[in-house]
Amino acid sequence: MKLGSKVKYKDKYGIGQIISKAEIFNNIYFEVFFKKVNKTIQVKKEDLELLPDPSSLLAAGYSSDPNAFYLKNMAHNLEQFYNNQDVISSVNFKIQPLPHQILALNFVLNKFKTRCLLADEVGLGKTIEAALIFEELKLRGTAKRVLIITPAGLTNQWQEEMKLKFDEDFYILNKDKANALEDLYGEEGNIWFEFDQVITSIDFLKSNKLSDEISEAEYKGRKKHNEKIYNSCIDGDWDIVIFDEAHKLTKYKSGRETARYKLGKELAEVTPTLLLLTATPHNGKPAVFQNMLKLIDPHLFYNRDNLIPEKVKQVTVRNKKRAVVDMEGKRIFKNRITNEVRISRNNSSDEAEKKLYDNIVDYVSEYYDLAKFEKNYPMIFLLMLYQRIVSSSSRAIKKTLEKRYKKLKKVKDISRRLNSLDLEDLDELSGEEQLEFIESNMAFLKNDKYLNKEINIIENCIKSAEKSLNGNDDAKLKKLLEIIDFAKQKEKDPDLKIIVFTEFIETQNYILESLEKLGYKTAHINGKLSLEEKILQKNKFKEESQILVSTDAGGEGINLQFCSYMINYDLPWNPMKLEQRIGRIDRIGQKEDVKIFNFILKDTVEEHVREILENKLRIIKDQFGEDKFGDVLSTLQEDFNFNQLYFDAVINDELEEEKLDQIGEEMYNKAKNIIEDEDYLIPFNEKNELKKADKKVIEEVPKKVKSFIKLFFKSNNMELNEYSRDENIYYFQNNFANEKFKNHFSKVIFKPSKGLNTEEADLFSLNHDYVKEVIKKSKKEGYVSAFEINDNRFAGKSGLLSYWKLNITNNFNYNYTELISIFIEDTERFNRRISKAFADISDFNNFNLGVLPDYSQIKCLEESAKKEAEKEAEDIFLSEKLDWTDKLKQQKSQLEEYFKQKREAVENIKVENIKKGKLSNLASDYDLELEQLKEKEELFPKLDCVQLAYVEFK
């Protein structure tokens, strides 16, 4: 053992390196640094195990089987991707890697600071881009703790998408779970450290306002939240923070920070990687846009003059939905064809339905005024839901009112109030979830007189609903069956798959029962199903059922692009939720034009409101395109509460046609300003083509992993079997590491895109634990070998093949690895052509065991190989250093410009001592930033020989 030797001490320490030696009292002690635990410890010589060294093994005449050498080389080759290739994460997960996503990944990772605004149009996979960045940094060992902050209604969607596509488990932290964790672990600890991967909602997390106007108990509760939730999260030592719907991080017009913006600002200041996701970064307010960009780069956007396209482009990724292409250069998205289906209820058999609708409108109108007088917001929200449910189905309103009737009778003499209700959070939920929340919290009027009256009204409404159902002539259901038949005939496909969306589970049950009675095979998805149950229902729909009936809450995160027909049995009042439905099928992977049928009940208040508002929205679609319309909806829904607009029109005559026209015009102008400002300030990415190297990685890595696993199986008497009816899906009996892995793998895939519709399969990628374990095992053998190769290109040549691992780091945020192949002929001549050919050992076939010559015969070859490896390594090192220096120069330039602007601002301060103090602090900050840049400047190379083989070409 000597200085620099690699050794093992105990498994928990990993591999160490000897850095000093001491002899005392007839014993030899070594000081060893263990990178895994970042520790230097002293160990006696006899307690250390020297790791195999190719040169020593070669000198000792050791030789392994060519297959073992081959496996070890493939393991090293695969492993180098962890550090080198920006696109490697795109082939590790169940997604269809696309050029614009990989370009976005490269854009962020090639920046000096991994901070970016991801502003693609709706439907282009901003979630996937953010996840790929996280996974890439995780693979490289530079990120572990990640926090995803979303609107309340999107937390489950993010959790399911991360599990389905990336096999990542995220913990959703909300108020109830925070309280439970505090009970479990006590008040002293920081609950945010209990999990490394967390999703939370922005309005749960943001700080609460403290004032003397609130009660002492409320003040105490808010203060505790600010300390235990907000401040603890800021101190959570996150590696990555991702904000979805980031346009919500706004300031007031006065410049005062909102609680949301303060949260974004404080996390931005302490987090290395920050990703802001929004389809509408510029919501028509330049100051708000600048403040959001300052979260990403305060140096670049300190001054409003820097709010120009050239600067914005430096921190922003933005792609057009209809412009993006696949790997073959073909446009990804098809056309969307939307049809409005107006349903009349003019027959005598429809009288009961119309009577029921009128009864509910009367009930809602009367009790809205009462609830408004009491400021009973839960009751108001419940009445809004009833108005939506009656337009959904008679069955749904009957069941809902029956539940209400029982509860009213049960608690006739009790009046409850909700102590706290965040209506903004509630508005994010689907109709199904809103109803469940309100019903579970029991909304009642205080006045007993109105409680008794409500019981009588509901009783009459239930009777109307029963008459409606007994008529057996449901106009909406009849139209549903007509559209299903029309679609099958139009496509000339009796087995055509169709999705039916509704807001409420009871309507879903009604549709399912009706269709099944007619012989249709159905599947269903709703919010009450677990993720596993949703996948089962999705697979049932794909493989055997013709019609899927889904609720809004159920459709989140599930890809249904193998179906192109959608019927919206009832329409949500908020058009954003309709866009989210359509996004289930109008998405990446859809091969057909998407056909949408929207049901609208004629002669209803909703039809009247929708007609006026939709006309204005339709102008936006026609003028700017369907995709930009989808982009601005998220911003419009904040300025114009669609639910409230519809409801106001239902319960009173305040919203006359002239007023609705005015609101529609305001919506149009707002959308127009947003779109035009964004098009000017945020240029779309023009580059769609990947580098050849990137394409090669995407195509080759899955093949390499598959070849590697097949060779490993062959060496371990195992067999990889492909299903005869399912191409590219495999199964095998596992005889390896059974204590860690299951005995039988029933569904294994190697192609990431295959996972789009096979969520339950194991994707064997570089990120899969089984593949990692095989790599680890394969690296333990095959250091030295001798073999013969039948290859006419190099027939008659023989010599020493060596592989050298070059690692470059700056001990901070830079890490690069490359495997260098060197072939030295027996004549001591460096053969560059053979060396290059061996860069990928899998290009060679027909390895036969050869004879290893005496070490004395090839010692000089080894020395020549080392010299050539050092030359190759130096060229690579200098090239990498040049690129790194350019990045540092750019960062330094931004830094200098930022501090120059800050100094100019401070110089205008009139009070001399304040000015002097601020200038002093500014100088200290500048020196600190420069010092940190300088520390990152130096790159350190390390070169190790990892394999040696004597090769003869026949």
TrEMBL record:
Coiled coil: 888-936
Superkingdom as given in the UniProt entry: Bacteria
Residues annotated as domain Helicase ATP-binding: 107-299
GO MF annotations in UniProt: ATP binding; helicase activity; hydrolase activity
InterPro entries in the cross-refs: DEXDc_RapA (IPR057342), Helicase_ATP-bd (IPR014001), Helicase_C-like (IPR001650), P-loop_NTPase (IPR027417), SNF2-like_sf (IPR038718), SNF2/RAD54-like_C (IPR049730), SNF2_N (IPR000330)
SUPFAM superfamilies with a match to the protein in the record: P-loop containing nucleoside triphosphate hydrolases
Family matches, as SMART domains: DEXDc, HELICc
Chain ranges passing through the membrane: none
Cross-referenced Pfam families: Helicase_C, SNF2-rel_dom
Residue ranges of domain Helicase C-terminal in the record: 479-641
Record keywords, A-Z: ATP-binding, Coiled coil, Helicase, Hydrolase, Nucleotide-binding
PANTHER family in alphabetical order: DNA ANNEALING HELICASE AND ENDONUCLEASE ZRANB3 FAMILY MEMBER, SWI_SNF-RELATED MATRIX-ASSOCIATED ACTIN-DEPENDENT REGULATOR OF CHROMATIN SUBFAMILY A-LIKE PROTEIN 1
Protein's name in the database: SNF2 family N-terminal domain-containing protein
Species whose genome carries this gene: Halanaerobium congolense
